[in-house]
Amino acid sequence: MSDFQTEMNRVVADFVAQVTELAKRVAIDTLEGALGGRPSNRGGSSYSARGGTGGRRKGAKRTASDLDKLGDDFYSFVSKHPGMRIEQINKQLDTTTKDLALPIRKMIGEGSLKTKGEKRSTTYFAGAKK
């Protein structure tokens, strides 16, 4: 083999080794993050990352107190500002529809929240707080 081919093979082998090592580290970090080890370095936003309660990682299960606080915040806001749509409420509370879906379903089920309309045109009104 010529010197050029030998050098090229060495460079390619080094590159493949570096990429393999990097892939192993990322896989280990991801697994440790998913299994509750040290937190993963992946980005992402959640209610807590925007100033909500706790230091939850993205995808982590919310505690009952987190859900209660979020529900109370939503109920208080709707009590003061009845008839708003979820997009408008999200802007004011700095939340997402996904963050609020479960607390809203619970409050509608218990009767403390009333709605009018369907899908994106749904507006929210305070009912009798239980």
Short descriptors:
130 residues, mainly alpha, Arc Repressor Mutant, subunit A, 2 domains, 4 helices, 3 strands, 8% strand, elongated
Summarize the structure.
This protein is mostly helical. The protein has helices at residues 3-34, 64-80, 86-93, 97-110; strands at residues 84-85, 113-116, 123-126.
Task: Describe, in plain words, how this protein is organized in 3D.
The chain is mainly α and 130 residues long. It has 2 domains: 1-39; 62-126, Arc Repressor Mutant, subunit A (Orthogonal Bundle), CATH 1.10.10. Helices cover 55% and strands 8% of the residues. The chain contains 4 helices and 3 strands; from the N terminus they run H-H-E-H-H-E-E. The chain has helices spanning 3-34, 64-80, 86-93, 97-110; strands spanning 84-85, 113-116, 123-126. Strand 2 and strand 3 form a beta hairpin. Helix 2 packs across helix 4 (97-110). Mean pLDDT is 82; it is low at 39-51.
